[in-house]
Amino acid sequence: MNTIRPWLWMFTAVWAILSVALLSGCSGLPAAPSDERAWLTQTEESETRRRARVRLELAAGYLEQGQTMVALDEVNRSLAIDPHFAAAHNLRGLILMEIKEPQQAEASFQQALRIAPRDGDTWHNLGWFHCQQERYAEAVQAFGSALQSPAYASAARTWMVQGLCQARAGQLADAEASLGRAFQLDASNPITLYNLALLLHKRDEHERARFYLRRLNNSDLANAESLWLGVRIERRLQNPEAVQQLGRQLMRRFPQSREASAFERGAFHE
């Protein structure tokens, strides 16, 4: 493989690296209600938001279960109750990304940011959207806005996703720096560990790659793909004992995997 691809571990693409803060204050009511809602009392407005939030949580649950169109119906119901709910526009953008409606997805993210312009979760998701569209400069700008958002609590995830995006763009030095920052903030994230190891392996920095991958393969989160990368790294380091040890783990734990088949055939360059 000639390019670095994002490795999403056991999650779906949406829930591994994207974000919707259903209960986040920064995705809550806008500071200044629009004219058409100014007549609502605080109690009435809170009840409106509560009903919209219930629908939004249903939508998020359906999306997590892979019921994408049902999730879209629920998020649309949430917005019918409260069109000024930034988190609902954000989730709608994620769903529209999932069903390959890029223009509508971007419009939803932009609407969320018009309502809550400092919402880090929406900026993060817009960054990944731009990356999917190969608009890499805009992606990095959006990730930067997420990282600068007040009270944003997911900086490690954003550095990680920025690194995946930069790797996809072929900006490998920048990708290493971003993934390294993600590692500093969260040293246990399997996606960060794997992609750092993969990037360094492809740059022939096998000792450094082994440092990160061992943390992963020595944990309960090791899987066929990480063990197979470990086999290839140890082989490049001319460590046959470690190759066989990792290979045995791979064959024992994931005997039906493509990686186990490749190990059995000795196809180390696949």
Structure summarized in a few sentences:
This protein has 270 residues and is mostly helical. The protein has 14 helices and no strands. Helix 9 (172-185) runs antiparallel to helix 10 (190-202).
Structural overview:
The termini are close together. By secondary structure, the chain is mainly α. 67% of the residues lie in helices and 0% in strands. The protein is elongated. Helix 4 (86-98) packs parallel to helix 6, helix 8 (155-168) runs antiparallel to helix 9 (172-185) and helix 12 (224-236) runs antiparallel to helix 13 (240-253). It contains 14 helices and no strands. The longest helix is centred in the N-terminal third of the chain and has 23 residues, at 42-64.
Task: Quickly count the helices.
Answer: 14
The main β sheet shows up as: none
> How does the overall form come out from the CA principal axes?
elongated
N-to-C terminal Cα separation, in Å? Answer: 8 Å
What is the SS-derived class?
mainly alpha
Q: In percent, how helical is the residue content? A: 55-70%
Radius of gyration: 21 Å
Mean pLDDT: 85
Low-confidence stretches: 1-16, 22-40
Total DSSP E strands: 0
Summary keywords:
elongated, 67% helix, single chain, 270 residues, mainly alpha, 14 helices, disordered N terminus
